Amino acid sequence: MTTGYRPELIQRVFIDFISTRLHPFWSLTVPKLRLIARRTLSNDLIALQFEPNRAFKQQAFSSGNSSHNGWHGGQHINLSILIDGVYHQRHYSLVGLAQQPLWWHEDGDKNSNRNQNNLNNSLDKNGFDRDRLDEKSQPQTIVSTITIAVKPQGLVSDYLSKRAALGTIFNSSLPSGEFTLAHTVLAQQASQISKSLSLTPIPLPLLFIASGSGITPMLGLITQALQNGHPVTLVHYNRTTFYKSPLQDQWQQLATKYPTFIYHLINTGDPHTYLAGSRHLNVETLTALKLPLMDTQIFACGSPALLAGLYRACDEIDLPDNKQLRDNITIESFSAIESFDHILPAIDKADEEAVTSEAKTIYLRGRQRQYNSSTTLLLGAESAGIRMSHGCRQGICQLCRCNKISGRVKNIQTGKISNDGYESIQTCINVPMTDVILDI
After folding, report:
1. Is the pLDDT of residue 13 over 60?
2. Which of 262, 261, 328, 322 shows the shortest CA–CA distance to 298?
3. Residue 235, φ and ψ in degrees, nearest 5
4. What interhelical angle do 340-356 and 304-315 show, nearest 10?
5. Cβ neighbours of residue 395 closer than 8 Å, sequence gap 6 or more
6. Residue 302 scores a pLDDT above 60
7. Interatomic CA distance for residues 323 and 319, integer angstroms
8. What is the structure's pLDDT at 66?
9. Is 168 in a helix, a strand, or coil?
10. How far apart, in whole angstroms, are the C-alpha atoms of residue 79 and residue 290?
11. For 80-116, what is each residue's pLDDT tens digit?
């Protein structure tokens, strides 16, 4: 009986095995990226520009993805990075849109050409020109580079931003993620149904809230939203100054081009930049924006503390018809947090304890030093002038992990209190409940 199965005479996996032995960038099935340039976006963000191989282009721009020209603004890729013989997996948000040049594209093209000319000759002879020939068979609209933005912190991001040589090749996933404008479509349809019928639907107002490197997925999202006619407001919290940074230039260019774009850059250490007189996000911050919050879709990306503050503020705002503002929120977070309903009480309680509890003594056995802390172990050490290993400060990168010899600590993300004995903990998300001894 005919089943319709037609075996491959020469399997693609075998071809991939041979081609990667000829040149590591070649593959029919595995998407790969080659690092070709770096660019500073702000005091703590560096853009990395990659050249995709043919497999990446064919799969990302296949007919199934043609509706959004490769990827949506706000999506991310998963890179596989080899460091000292160990592979690490990390998600990074894509900067910009697939079919459009970034705002620094003229300089970027020059730098890219210069950097590619500086790659060693073996790369050029063994595959660079051949891959260029492959591009000629692709549609002219296909993007020639992939760009991500990283914050030099932690093992992997620090390696990518400082140590990885130009020309280094990484395995990559295809663009994915649901932190996109597609979430606003259903909301807009529902909003239009509840109102009187109109021939021309009114684009929903959008509010983007970010902290630190959480701004990276916003770059493509905001551009796409403005092009689609949405009124856009951006609120970005950061610990460093934005003055005369390429990132600030981008927001100014968009504000000049689109009158419906308003942005607020808040340096948490500079009171002159505060919105509604507060360095943190709260209900006064939201109301000061003077947005029609009932119809506003909110995109947020940042630390758990920022996201928890957003949910608290939304819960304090009363909307008509028993509607809840938190239903308008779409969040992006690469941490392991699954439910903000679960961590809100834990964060609130930890914040309260950090203010009202007595300071505990933290002893660093390896350094024979001690300090007092009523906040997280990491912040307490820094307040005492003691440097400790750290990365993301959000419990994600694990760079601050150390061994606790004795004492009880509380995880501010989960609310879990540790036992009194030997245990591996993260100093950035644990507050002391008793005196603690760390093996540092």
Report:
1. no
2. 328
3. -125, 115
4. 100
5. 304, 335, 336, 413, 426, 428, 429
6. yes
7. 6
8. 44
9. coil
10. 40
11. 998 988 888 888 889 888 777 776 654 444 444 444 4
Provide the 3-class DSSP secondary structure of residue 169: strand
Q: Give the 3-state secondary structure of residue 245.
A: coil
What is the C-alpha separation between 424 and 186, in angstroms, rounded? 45
Q: Give the separation between CA 135 and CA 80, rounded to whole angstroms.
A: 24
Give me the residues paired with residue 76 across strands.
93, 176
Which residue(s) pair with 363 in the sheet? 370, 437
Type of residue found at 29:
T
pLDDT per residue over 326-351, tens digit each?
A: 888 888 765 444 444 444 554 444 44
Phi first, then psi, for residue 211 (nearest 5°) are -130, 135
Find the distance separating the first CA and the last CA of the chain, reported in whole Å. 69
Q: Write down the pLDDT at residue 18.
A: 64
Q: For residue 416, is pLDDT > 60?
A: yes
Q: Which of 28-32, 162-166, 193-197, 267-271 has the highest mean pLDDT?
A: 162-166
pTM over 0.90: no
* Strand arrangement, sheet containing 401-406: 369-373, 360-364, 436-438, 401-406, 423-426
Note the pLDDT of residue 65: 47
> Could you give the percent of the chain with pLDDT greater than 90?
24
Contact 231, 260 (CB under 8 A): yes
* C-beta of residue 245 within 8 angstroms of C-beta of residue 275: no
- Write the secondary structure of 349-416 as one string of H (helix), E (strand) and C (coil): HHHHHHHHCCCEEEEECCCCEEEEECCCHHHHHHHCCCCCCCCCCCCCCCCCEEEEEECCEEECCCCC
At 211, the amino acid letter reads: S
Mean pLDDT of 212-241: 89
Over residues 348-374, the mean pLDDT reads 71
Pairing mode, strands 76-83 and 169-172: antiparallel
Tokens, residue 232: 């856009």
Specify the amino acid at residue 394. Answer: Q
Tokens 């507050």 — which residue?
Answer: 431
